[in-house]
Amino acid sequence: MSAVDYRLAFEHAPVGMVLSRHRTMVDCNARLCEMFGATRAALVGQSFRVLYPSVAEFERIGKRMEPILNTSGRYADNRMMRRLGGLHGAIAGDTFWCHVTGQALNRDAPHESGIWTFEDLGSRRAVTAELTPREREVAAQVMQGLTSKEIGRALGISHRTVELHRARLMRKYTAATTAELVQKLLAA
Length: 188
What we know:
By secondary structure, the protein is of the alpha+beta class. Helices cover 41% and strands 20% of the residues. The chain has a five-stranded antiparallel sheet with strand order 2-1-5-4-3. Helix 5 packs across helix 7. The protein is globular.
């Protein structure tokens, strides 16, 4: 039996993959470059911040994931990400839904080093309404079927604030019920 070429597996994985140190991209594969419309040279050495719609979202998600990585060593969520360039048919600045999964290599210092996967959900969930960063976070949680209280705990905000964001989402997507909102978020 021949040896497995892990570099080849990394490079040709069907999802975007990144090796990171201190929330900076150390290496990435071709699929990640395609997804974000950038070359490897444009991504390696950059903070993950360049992939987020805003600095606030980058900071907020970083703080939210740290205690989870400390506990289990793994983290996953659906979030909005931002395309960087115009390569591979991408339009710079466009936002898209992305499933992100990460594994900290050191639970005691979760941002020290890790491996992350990115799956473009854009073909399943197009972004049609202009959403605020917090609305994007609430929308991602609503699509997971969480209640306002559960979303509030997950995001560190009150359930009343979640209800306000949910109401704005329902107006923006002209949904009469939460089930209709989820359906429209999935099909948008």
